Amino acid sequence: MKLLSFVLFAALPLTTQAASKINVIGATEDLAAIAREIGGDNVTVDSIAKGYQDPHFVEPKPSFILKLQKADVLLTVGLQLEIGWLPPLITQSRNPKIQVAGPGYIDMSRFSQILEIPSGPVSRAQGDVHPMGNPHYWLDPDNGRRMAKGLADKFSSMQPENAAAFAQRYADFDKRLTAAEKGWEAKMAPYKGRKVITYHRSWPNFAERFGMDVVDYVEPKPGIPPTPQHTLDVENLMKRDGVKLILVEPYFDLKTPNKIAADVGGQVVVLMPSVGGNKEATSYFQLFDYDINLLVNAFSKFK
Ligand SMILES: [Zn+2]
């Protein structure tokens, strides 16, 4: 009983302080990172999926429900990326603000340019985890910019008294991002058009932006593990076209990529698809710094 009173007493001042800030929860660390850039001191930001986890498959925990109970805003990637784990957590939070029709539920895909939108009917029964277009769109910095603008507008509508501060932070983010993009593009320019294999279809936005040509995937379909026949097809394609790099997200088994690399004389590169995937990529800017440095280093070893 004594302990309980202490906890309640200690928690009170914190709750009062936090009430003036918008409490933002990102379904992923990428979205949280952009919210931090734009929200600054006017928001508190936390996230659910960690950057080193496959965002399609996150194991739900009771602590996630606690986070959602206190949220004013929930940022989702959308396009069914989180369909396997987030909807029950939202329901169980019983927080009306962040239910799908609530004022604080923000699907960030609506601000972004989406690639690979299927033209025909697609069902998850076929195993495709990208039935509404590619959900890994945050890997083009221009989509980061669009999401930042969307958040600046949203935060301003929630806190009109701080609209100037949000606009200022967006302008500053835009300026820093524009400068960083020039550097990233210059580093990647010598390798424009280089062909690569990726494990999952995580990189179409990144590839389009930075001039990489993704010619096939270790997965036969998004979300479907490698098969011997498909692996053989990938190896034959790599040998035919002289493709050397296999880019793998940190949460996939390296067994098949390593076998392919050994068979074709290529190299596996573990590329980071999300902020927080490791200690070197803890901001939206550092994510691109990290990946582009890895890629440039790997590309430079092969013609
Ligand atoms: Zn995916």
Describe the 3D structure.
With 303 residues, the protein is an alpha/beta fold. It is built from 10 helices and 8 strands. The N terminus is likely disordered. It binds zinc ion.
Shape: globular
Small molecules bound in the structure, each named once: zinc ion
Residue-averaged pLDDT: 93
User: Roughly how many Å apart are the termini?
Assistant: 70 Å
Strand line-up of the largest beta sheet = 2-1-3-4
Q: Given the helix and strand composition, which structural class is it?
A: alpha/beta
The main sheet comes to: 4 strands, parallel
Number of extended strands? 8
State the helical fraction. 40-55%
What is the helix/strand order?
HEHEHEHEHHEHEHEHEH
Identify low-pLDDT runs: 1-18
- By DSSP (H or I, 4+ residues per run), the number of helices equals 10
- How much is the radius of gyration in Å? 21 Å
Strand content range = 5-15%
